Amino acid sequence: MGYMSLEQLNENSFEEVIYDNGEPCLVIFSRKTCHVCQGVVPILEEIQPKYEGKFGFYYVDVEEHKTLFQRFSLKGVPQILFFKDGEYQGKLAGAVDDEKVIDKIAEVLES
């Protein structure tokens, strides 16, 4: 079960993408052993191509990067956090469908 098509972020690249570049994007906080996550990640991979060049899709492994996870006071995974212009735009937690994600992306891009 690979997460190859979602770019993985560490503390440094997270800073760069979210705050330095201010890219409109989502970041899924997930762990390899989480079954719900394994259901959500493919949904993101599926819709990602529609947003090529407009909206970024990223992945953070909470076991490898606990500090990022703790920084946002997140409880449990998966959590999809949305950002734009270096500002936190809200999140979706747990098992979500593509419609919820697409609606939220539209909201972020319009804001």
SSE series: EHEHEHEEH
Mean pLDDT: 93
Strand content: 15-25%
Oligomer: single chain
Q: Which consecutive residue ranges, at least 5 long each, have pLDDT under 50?
A: none
Report the strand count.
5
Give the tags.
alpha/beta; 4 helices; 24% strand; 111 residues; five-stranded mixed sheet
Please outline what is shown here:
This protein has about 110 residues and is α/β, with parallel strands linked by helices. The chain has helices at about 10-20, 35-45, 65-70, 100-110; strands at about 5-10, 25-30, 55-60, 80-85, 85-95. α2 links the parallel β2 (about 25-30) and β3 (about 55-60).
Describe the structure.
By secondary structure, this protein is of the alpha/beta class. It has helices at residues 11-20, 35-47, 66-71, 98-110, and strands at residues 7-8, 25-30, 56-61, 79-84, 87-93. Strands 1-3-2-4-5 form a five-stranded mixed sheet. A hairpin with a 2-residue loop joins β4 and β5. It is globular. It starts with 6 loop residues before the first strand and ends with a helix. The mean pLDDT is 93.
Write the layout of secondary structure elements.
Layout: E1 7-8, H1 11-20, E2 25-30, H2 35-47, E3 56-61, H3 66-71, E4 79-84, E5 87-93, H4 98-110
Parallel strand pairs: 1-3, 2-3
Antiparallel strand pairs: 2-4, 4-5
